[in-house]
Amino acid sequence: MSSPTKTGNKKQVKIEVGALGIIIAVVAMMLHSLQAIFGKLLVHDLSAETLTVASQLLGSVVILLFFGIAGEVKNLLKLSKKNMLFLLIFSLLAGALAPMLLYTGLQTSSSLNGTLLGRTEPVFAIIISILWLKEQFKIGDGISMTIMVIGMLTIVTKGFHEGINPAGGDVLIIASALSWAAATTIYKRFLPKVSQDIAVLSRNLIGAVCVLIVYPLVFHVSLNFQPLLDSRVFGILLLFAILVTVGAQMLWYKAVELTTVNKASQASLSKPFFGVIFAMLILGEQLLVFHWIGGVLIIGGLILTTQQGWEKKIFKKYISQKIEA
What we know:
globular; mainly alpha
């Protein structure tokens, strides 16, 4: 029988490890919030397609150098044909379509919009889970989704003073969030036993190869890599690959290992705050009134998505107050 001292020590260690996981999750979100910043800095020199290929390929190189080529190839070859198929679909959505839509959107939109609108991914995750996975619709999810949609529309229409441009940058950023949501759903539903390093590597590598080979054949355009010869552009891109493409993802998965997914998800709420701060400090962008309103609504909806059963608690409290009255 363990002594109270040993039991107390184990609990203390568990608490400290969990706290470390939350801190790592926050750092991961801080690094990931730089995606829109780096994207905005680079879209003036590189096309969205070239930026996608270059950043994903550099990310793949960093991962292979870190984990070793032989081990990663060996693990990849062990996957079943079914897992390979879903890994391919996941990689095309997360490694090709989502970043291309985001970077194309950033050509005409601000990084502030990219940061805030990019956080609408849970809206599409809820819709996909209901329509595709046939999960039960919950009132709480519906309320939080509605709040985030109102916040999203507030930003896209600049406080409901402008119409929605179907070909505008904001719409493309939202489409990027949809692509991310679909990829995340596929990973959670069909690839739960695939290691994170394999998922990250395949996402980066397959996404880059797809855009590099398929995109020019379909759209009859060539990708221009000449701007990468500029030391400034290549330096920013390399920093982007290390900090965002690889660093943020690896830290995030480590955080999930050390703490619960729910707590890590709550820590992810810090991403918009870092994104806004970086956009103002690095790019000099202004946070306007509609950004404040839309941002608060989106973050408020995100907070509700992390609080399971919150609507039931409020309903029970309301009923008990009515009975007491």
